[in-house]
Amino acid sequence: MKSLKRRNLYSYVEVQVSFSLATPFKGFHIIVKVKINHSLRNELIKRGDSAMEVKKATFRGGIHPSYFKELTNHKALKKAKLPIQVIIPMQQNIGAPCEPIVKKGDYVKLGQKIGESKGFVSAAIHSSISGEVIAVEPRPHPTGQKVLSIIVKSDGKDTLDDEIKPYGSIEAISSSEIIDLIKEAGIVGLGGAAFPTQVKLSPPPEKKIDAVIINGAECEPYLTADHRVMVEKADEVVLGLKAILKALNVEKGYIGIENNKPDAIEAINKALGETSNISIYSLATKYPQGAEKQLIHAITGREVPSGGLPMDVGVVVQNIGTVVAIANTIITGMPLVERVVTITGSAIKEPQNLLVRLGTTFSEIIEQCGGFSQKPGKIIMGGPMMGITQYTTEVPVIKGTSGILVLNEEEANIPDPTPCIRCGKCVEVCPINLLPLYISAYALNEQYEMAEKYKALDCIECGSCSYICPSRRPLVPSIRLAKREIVAQKRKG
Ligand code: SF4
Ligand code: SF4
Q1: Which atom of ligand 1 is found nearest the CA of 463?
Q2: For residue range 331-387, what is the model confidence (pLDDT) as tens digits?
Q3: Whose CA is nearest to atom 6 of ligand 2?
Q4: How far is the CA of 456 from the centre of ligand 1 (A)?
């Protein structure tokens, strides 16, 4: 493949000319990519020392879907009712599952550890209510599998575990104690990925971190949980960020918030007060602004390399819910036993943002929102772009449940795909600068080596290409399949 590049201050033009004998794209290909060169542009923007950086930072590509956030973005957080029973799966994070340390018939207290993490990439699990363990058995999980779960029947008393004691202030605890308390509290990334937080905060010594970014973009349509948390718990956001800065021994912190949340920007700015080492970035409202690589690029101008991680460019990114969970643990000693969930969509009677105990079933939560207003066509955990479709509402809210979205039958009806018309729209919107039409076609032809050459593994599965495609091609599912096959081949050696 030949590549001819021309660079100037504001744009980057890449012309690729290639010849391929492989089906389905036999013959010559000419691909032209144009992108704004943010890293060069950002060097020209003077950054002040004030807490507030009002500039529309953004990234290349992306889409502007209908957001539907008005269903819940003005609704204050409410505590969900205490559940009658909870189903607590032993797999709630990326990495190793936990092992149950209680058995049927045991009495457990609120906040008591019931699942022990066994691997480095894992997070402990605690009971979200007090009561009796009535079963330890596989139960349906939002990922579609059955997962070993501890079922606790509430005694209605919420008796607190004796181990739970406030840690006091950040000043009272050391950097390593902060990482230990995060580990003990079972805190994971609450944006949906559920990566154990203490692992992110323990980079190898050769990776020098000099910036922490808090992700307040919440770019997924419909979801407003982070938005409400920033408005109502701004002090905790700042405290949690300060704890992370101390844990990593990093001076500079950033909070990136999409500019469709002016009240959140205002609340955080107020909470920062005289703090001078934390800046707020007002981000352009565009999907997927909250994806880690896009956020890092928008705020620092740094480009995470293909196959790399944020720590490769000296950055750690954490979600809003995660920093608030850290702050809560410091203030109260309580591990992660509840989270804010946006329950929304056209088929929900009263959309809300609820503070929900982990393990509460979707059906119980939907009931508290007045139930279904019309026949549900699709139930999704998370947002419409990256969420996971559910086949039953008898699954529990887990640490990664940012939302429960219920669409009506009409919205859920996706027309059948038609042949690709080579319009190039999927290429235009891909924030990673990939060629989705090629990767997908190779995947559908089981030519996984070619899909890998076209960097399928770099795909962040944001769904922008599928969203924009006029032919409704199954781009994301086929790219996801290619990724799975490539990884499986690599494992086989
Ligand atoms: S190819 Fe992957 S990263 Fe690019 S738009 Fe599609 S889903 Fe997003
Ligand atoms: S957007 Fe759809 S139709 Fe257009 S080039 Fe991509 S896959 Fe083909």
Answers
A1: 7
A2: 999 999 999 999 999 999 999 999 999 999 999 999 999 999 999 999 999 999 999
A3: 426
A4: 9
